[in-house]
Amino acid sequence: MLKSLSVQNFALIEKVDLEFGDGLNILTGETGAGKSILIDALGAVLGHRVGASNIRAGCEELRIEAVFLPEKFSPVHEIMQELEIEEDENLIITRKISRGGKNSIVVNGSHLTLTALKKLGAALIDFHGQNENLALLKDSSVYNLIDGADEKIFPAQTEYQKLFRLWKAQIKSLEEKQKSKIENNQRLDMLKWQEQEISAADLKVGEDDELEIEIKKLSHAEKISENVLEACLLLGGGNDFDILTALAKVEKNLAEVSKFDDKLNSAQKLLEDATISLREVFDDVQSYSESVEFSPEKLDQLHARVDVIYNLKKKYGGTIAEILDRLEKVREEISQIENFDSDFETTKQLILKLEAQTKKRAATLLKLRQKSAEKLSAAIEKEIRKLGMEKAKFKITVEPVEELNLRGGDSADMIFSANVGEEMKTLSKIISGGELSRVALAIKTISAGREDSAETMVFDEIDTGLGGATAKVVAEGIAKVSCAKQVLCVTHLAQIACIADVHLQISKSDDDEKTVTQVQRIKDNDRVREISRMASGEETPASMKNARAMIASAQKIKRLMKNKVL
């Protein structure tokens, strides 16, 4: 519920503070006093478009603040949690706009984007005026009405949309595959050439490192051979100067000494061990010397192999492991392309399956909507007849269509006939402005009790073009809505104003320098005078008496409505 609205420097308004009550809040005043400006200000604080041009002349900034008291189980709480707005007893929305274009939106201390504010605002207030009447004729409004009236429709539509999107995604995939068929054939030739080139190399991980070592060895084979040969000669060349021959002589000498003194026995043992180790060294060096060969042909072969690997690295990866990984991916892609026809057929079969499932879900959704539309049609027609069109006929039609869309497989429309004998036709083609206002009010009356509807409704001059008995039944219709919801209504009709729970009078005054819009809550004699002015344009004893009678009659009707007698 909207508790209060504070407006500063908005259009003709310098500063206005409004307090609203439960039930029906009526705003009246002379034409041009600023009634619609207040509604525009309320719309602005809920996310409607507003700019620096709305700032009052001579001011640098406009400021609007609305205070709401959300109902306990209102959808507003879920939206606040989603937007991470701190919950308190009151919901306070403040919006400021400067001439420099700065737009500040603060909700319970949290800064919000305009998009987030619009989402929150839609759950707080339902605006209803001449433009909104026309919006009711759009397909989206008809579907919102039907789908919101039956809790089974939303999960059915969610499941349908899931299947529909999968179905369309597979169709798109099939189209893309068809377009890529020629490209695939061209790519297949290239992939096969790559696969052959890499496979022919028969690469092994670590092979490049081994080749580098082997090339280094062969490149220095002559030097290696010279050094190994010299080492062999020094170790055991078979002459008196090699190490092993010399050690044999030393060993012999020590053996002779040991015959006479055993103090060198340990040295003799160490010498024996050293001789054994050196003989092993000699055997290893000699064996290695026999394996060393200098082969220019082999060296050329190794260099050629390195060149092959180098070229493959430039094309397919910086390492042999990366090249082999690329080979696997190439083979996978070749397999996919070669299995294209099979995959193409599988996708076609999946599309047919999804199409059948989607159509089945669409048929279920159609039946649910038709059932909801039938129930709504009866209820809305009943309300329309209460609003002064006793012979009117109203029906929401839901018919199947050939081509499915994201909404479903049906088309919804509202058809209407105002008088006996007239053929029922599409509402948008035959209805007058006054009739449309009453139909719209009937729809709002039926939807007012829905849990997903906004807590507050705003009726902005929907009485335009109405009068007499019609104005009275429209007044009663608005009063009926106010029994379930808080209602704010801007009106020029005394028949509507006299049924108010809270009456706010808007006026304006001006001097030589500026015009100012003012608002005051009126009751008792002030209210009687305002109703008198609205009904007859003057304040005479007769018009004042008539105004009192209108108020008394309206309040009696309101009490009966609240007690559910009417």
Could you characterize the architecture of this molecule?
The protein is of the alpha/beta class and 566 residues long. The chain contains 20 helices and 15 strands. The strands form 3 sheets. Strands 2-1-4-5-6-7 form a 6-stranded antiparallel sheet, covered by helices on one side. Strands 8-12-13-3-14-15 form a 6-stranded mixed sheet. Strand 1 and strand 2 form a beta hairpin. Helix 7 packs antiparallel against helix 13, helix 10 packs antiparallel against helix 11 and helix 19 packs across helix 20. The longest helix has 47 residues.
Task: Give the SSE map.
Layout: E1 2-10, E2 13-19, E3 24-29, H1 35-45, E4 61-68, H2 75-82, E5 91-98, E6 103-107, E7 110-111, H3 114-124, E8 125-129, H4 130-135, H5 139-147, H6 153-179, H7 181-201, H8 207-219, H9 221-236, H10 243-258, H11 265-291, H12 296-316, H13 320-338, H14 340-386, E9 393-405, E10 408-417, E11 425-426, H15 427-430, H16 433-447, E12 456-460, H17 468-482, E13 486-490, H18 494-497, E14 502-510, E15 515-522, H19 524-536, H20 541-562
Parallel strand pairs: 3-13, 3-14, 8-12, 12-13
Antiparallel strand pairs: 1-2, 1-4, 4-5, 5-6, 6-7, 9-10, 10-11, 14-15
Helix pairs in contact: 2-3, 6-14, 7-13, 8-12, 9-11, 10-11, 12-13, 14-16, 16-17, 19-20
State the share of residues found in helices, binned by percent.
Answer: 55-70%
Assembly level: single chain
Unreliably modeled segments: none
Radius of gyration: 47 Å
Overall strand count: 15
Pairing-aware structural class of the strands and helices?
alpha/beta
Largest sheet: 6 strands, antiparallel
Residue fraction in strands: 15-25%
N-C termini distance? 24 Å
Shape: elongated
The main sheet orders its strands as 2-1-4-5-6-7
Mean pLDDT: 85
Number of helices: 20
